[in-house]
């Protein structure tokens, strides 16, 4: 199957899942996750009309996205991988959305960088819903206070929450927990769902899904 066909298939599955959940068509944004694929492999997705992309690594993204963004206006780039403080300046410069704010230090560094560069980047807080030690993200119990801290202490506007459920568990309860925390924290957006579970995520209220291999193929 060609990339364009796979992309169309994912889009139609999202539309069907929206309908089934009684949600309006277009309620869910598709973030096409292009990590490990190079500019030539990403261009067909852009030609097919895809404008929103996700990447895991700042350095890898610097090697392809400045060029791709220059070619096509209106690209929206999301950072969905862990962020280190020493990459914060580059991340603020290149990305439109950072989905992985998960501790005070990085929140502070991002706030400082945005001031320095005079650029505002949209932000999500990553929640470690499965409390997995190897995974990034703030603990569920600390989420509301952390969002509050970002807003009140740092003046950041946090627009959503993001999670990556444990690979070996039913994702539904994790999606439900993220939605509940978003309600408590007063944020509107929910970034949840990947190739294997994005339709479930739509049913649980995802406002964006991050789909890689179902579009670009195996990595
Ligand atoms: C790689 C990645 C995805 C996409 O995963 P697929 O299973 O290829 O769809 C989504 N979210 C994050 C945070 C990722 O690192």
From TrEMBL:
SUPFAM superfamilies found in the cross-reference section: PLP-binding barrel
Pfam family, one: Ala_racemase_N
Its job: Pyridoxal 5'-phosphate (PLP)-binding protein, which is involved in PLP homeostasis.
GO MF annotation list: pyridoxal phosphate binding
Domain of life: Bacteria
Domain Alanine racemase N-terminal span(s) in chain numbering: 8-218
Transmembrane segments: none
CDD domains, A to Z: PLPDE_III_YBL036c_like
Keywords: Pyridoxal phosphate
Residue(s) carrying N6-(pyridoxal phosphate)lysine: 35
InterPro entries, alphabetized: Ala_racemase_N, PLP-binding_barrel, PyrdxlP_homeostasis
Family, as annotated: Belongs to the pyridoxal phosphate-binding protein YggS/PROSC family.
Cofactor list: pyridoxal 5'-phosphate
UniProt name for this protein: Pyridoxal phosphate homeostasis protein
């Amino acid at each position: 199957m060609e990339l364009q066909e796979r992309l169309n298939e994912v889009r139609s599955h999202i539309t069907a899942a929206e309908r089934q959940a009684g949600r309006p068509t277009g309620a869910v944004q598709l973030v096409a996750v292009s990590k490990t694929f190079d500019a030539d492999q990403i261009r067909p997705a852009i030609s097919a009309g895809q404008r929103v992309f996700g990447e895991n690594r700042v350095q890898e993204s610097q090697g392809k996205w400045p060029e791709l963004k220059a070619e096509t206006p209106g690209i929206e780039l999301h950072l969905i991988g862990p962020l280190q403080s020493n990459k914060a300046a580059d991340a603020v410069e290149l990305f439109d959305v950072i989905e992985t704010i998960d501790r005070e230090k990085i929140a502070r560094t991002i706030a400082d960088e945005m001031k320095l560069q005079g650029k505002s980047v949209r932000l999500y807080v990553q929640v470690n819903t499965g409390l997995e030690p190897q995974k990034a993200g703030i603990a569920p119990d600390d989420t509301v206070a952390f969002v509050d801290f970002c807003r009140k202490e740092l003046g950041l506007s946090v627009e959503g929450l993001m999670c990556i459920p444990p690979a070996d568990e039913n994702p539904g309860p994790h999606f439900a927990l993220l939605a509940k925390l978003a309600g408590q924290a007063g944020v509107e957006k929910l970034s949840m769902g990947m190739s294997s579970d994005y339709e479930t995520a739509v049913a649980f209220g995802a406002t964006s899904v991050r789909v890689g291999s179902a579009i670009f193929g195996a990595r």
